């Protein structure tokens, strides 16, 4: 995950990027070379603490989802919160939320494409992980043309090889 | 600026003045101010903006131009001060620099400047200035951590400048504004010790004495401010009357008439004006905007990002764009991202504190 988030974190004007689960647990927060600008002071901002940033962001996303429920709209798929000293951008991505904090003055639209790309990559990875875990085992068939490679371990569905059974 | 540039600039100024003489409009005033500012004549640019605002008091274009010119003016003075500080640093220059930065809302830079001043001179005035920046930071952000940091900075100053009333004045102001009456009373009592017989302080002390029985602690008062985003002396939506001349409903109607806009809304306190949708949907839309706005304001403060200035949500419902003011907000519910001009329109709505005669939700 870090290698997906690192290019985002390296973009000019990006202060923090994090991938957070829907219950507020930070999955990955890439480190970044400090390039403190004159208008902001990182030491004053609580989101240097990744856990606090994650918890606050997910809390906000939950509240927004409830708020948008009144419009029968469901959860937002992109949130941009622009404030005096920075901008928070959130984007749900397959079981997790991509969170970025930008410096004041940076246009969040500049991050749209890179964040979309990162979210798609995260989605692919998570789908791949889920797929390998939950893929159903194919049932044995009498058709000799369909030959499935045997699994690593014997199981109740796959018949044991003859030499092992004997 | 080159000679040719100056000559061209002067001719542009002449042309802008002529156009203004032919037709006095906010745009022509703004154009003339812009030309003066390009020439580096910020004083004249400011004068033109003020003249224009006297003629067209509600012009947001001129108000924005005036603010930009003032910013330019501050920046040019800051450049001069930086140069002077390198050549011949003295406390008055450091102090002026911090004041200008605070005036421009650059609180972090002001604090940096005060820190640098202290590191170089060990002047207690620099510590006082740093305390002031922390207080200003809290008043801008209204977050609990910023408040605690302001109070701890004031403690530090008071240990350094025990007989100086200024840190106590700051403490009194801060405690008063968050509603920590007991703490404010303590500060007023100390100030009366330092400045006995001051009738204003005596009156304030008597008021605080009456309040202090039901006073929350500093911590509790800071939590209340963070939760509500309001200081004690902020005007409530009920107290602020409607502003004449701003026909919010017409603006909302024009916005809602556009093809890609579902609804245009203006919310202030418990009331809302909604155009574009009707009945229960309008009520739900207004409640949704209010809830989302409240969450966004709180989150921005808790994240240390300061006051919320723009809030955009995109999803299956389309896009909801909110431009919050101090007490009110303009919002657009659209099929997709809104245009720059629509964003500016709702930004101009936010902050007008217009009278919402029609209660929708």
The second-level CATH architecture of chain A is 2-Layer Sandwich
Approximate helicity band of chain B: 55-70%
Q: How do the strands line up in the largest sheet of chain A?
A: 2-1-5-4-3
CATH class value of chain A: Alpha Beta
| Unreliably modeled segments of chain B | 240-245, 353-361
Q: So, the CATH homologous superfamily of chain A? A: Dynein light chain 2a, cytoplasmic
Tell me the total number of β-strands of chain B.
5
**What is the radius of gyration of chain A computed over CA atoms, rounded to a whole number of angstroms?**
23 Å
Distance between the termini of chain B: 57 Å
User: Structural class of the secondary structure composition of chain B?
Assistant: alpha+beta
Give a verbal description of the structure.
The complex is a heterodimer of chains A (166) and B (361). With 166 residues, chain A is α+β, with helices and mostly antiparallel strands. Chain A has one domain: Beta-Lactamase, CATH 3.30.450. Chain A contains four helices and five strands; from the N terminus they run αββαβββαα. In chain A, strands 2-1-5-4-3 form a five-stranded antiparallel beta sheet, with helices on both faces. Residues 32-46 and 132-139 of chain A have low confidence and may be disordered. Chain B folds into three domains: 3-76, Serine Threonine Protein Phosphatase 5, Tetratricopeptide repeat (Alpha Horseshoe); 89-228, Alpha Horseshoe (Serine Threonine Protein Phosphatase 5, Tetratricopeptide repeat); 248-349, Dynein light chain 2a, cytoplasmic (Beta-Lactamase), CATH 3.30.450.30. In chain B, 65% of the residues lie in helices and 10% in strands. In chain B, a hairpin with a 3-residue loop joins strand 4 (318-324) and strand 5. In chain B, helix 4 packs antiparallel against helix 5. The longest helix of chain B has 28 residues, at 60-87.
């Amino acid at each position: 995950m870090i290698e997906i988030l690192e290019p985002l974190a390296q973009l000019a004007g990006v202060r923090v990027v994090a991938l957070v689960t829907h219950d507020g647990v930070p999955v990955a927060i890439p480190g970044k070379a400090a390039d403190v600008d004159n208008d902001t002071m990182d030491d004053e901002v609580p989101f240097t603490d990744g856990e606090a940033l994650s918890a606050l962001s997910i809390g906000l996303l939950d509240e927004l989802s409830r708020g948008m429920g009144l419009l029968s709209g469901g959860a937002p798929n992109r949130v941009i919160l622009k404030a005096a000293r920075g901008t928070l951008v959130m984007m749900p991505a397959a079981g997790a939320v991509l969170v970025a904090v930008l410096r004041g003055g940076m246009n969040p639209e500049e991050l749209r494409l890179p964040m979309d790309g990162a979210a798609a990559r995260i989605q692919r990875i998570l789908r791949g992980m889920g797929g390998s875990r939950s893929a159903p085992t194919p049932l044995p068939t009498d058709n000799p043309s369909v030959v499935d490679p045997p699994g690593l371990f014997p199981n109740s569905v796959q018949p044991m090889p003859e030499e092992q059974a004997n | 600026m080159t000679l040719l540039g100056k000559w061209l600039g002067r001719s542009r100024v002449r042309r802008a003045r002529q156009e203004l003489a032919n037709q006095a409009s906010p745009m022509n005033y703004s154009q003339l101010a812009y030309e003066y500012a390009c020439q580096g004549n910020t004083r004249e640019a400011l004068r033109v903006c003020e003249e224009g605002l006297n003629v067209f008091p509600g012009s947001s274009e001129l108000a924005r131009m005036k603010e930009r010119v003032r910013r330019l003016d501050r920046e040019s003075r800051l450049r001069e001060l930086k140069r002077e500080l390198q050549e011949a640093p003295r406390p008055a220059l450091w102090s002026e620099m911090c004041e200008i930065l605070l005036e421009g809302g650059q609180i972090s830079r002001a604090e940096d400047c005060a820190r640098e001043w202290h590191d170089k001179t060990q002047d207690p005035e620099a510590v006082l200035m740093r305390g002031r920046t922390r207080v200003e930071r809290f008043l801008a952000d209204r977050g609990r951590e910023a408040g605690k940091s302001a109070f701890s900075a004031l403690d530090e100053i008071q240990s350094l400048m025990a007989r100086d009333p200024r840190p106590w004045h700051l403490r009194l102001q801060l405690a008063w504004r968050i509603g920590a009456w007991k703490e404010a009373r303590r500060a007023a009592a100390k100030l009366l010790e330092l400045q006995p017989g001051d009738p204003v302080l005596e009156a304030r002390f008597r008021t605080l004495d009456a309040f202090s029985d039901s006073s929350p602690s500093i911590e509790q008062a800071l939590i209340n401010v963070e939760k509500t985003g309001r200081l004690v002396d902020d005007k409530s939506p009920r107290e602020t009357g409607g502003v004449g001349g701003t026909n919010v409903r017409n603006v909302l109607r024009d916005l809602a008439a556009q093809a890609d806009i579902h609804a245009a809304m203006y919310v202030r306190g418990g009331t809302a004006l909604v155009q574009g949708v009707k009945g229960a949907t309008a009520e739900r839309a207004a409640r949704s905007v209010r809830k989302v706005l409240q969450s966004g304001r709180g989150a921005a403060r808790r994240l240390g990002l300061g006051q919320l200035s723009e809030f955009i949500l995109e999803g299956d419902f389309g896009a909801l764009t909110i431009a919050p003011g101090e007490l009110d907000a303009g919002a657009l519910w659209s099929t997709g991202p809104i245009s720059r001009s629509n964003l500016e329109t709702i930004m101009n709505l936010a902050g007008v504190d217009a009278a919402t005669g029609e209660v929708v939700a």
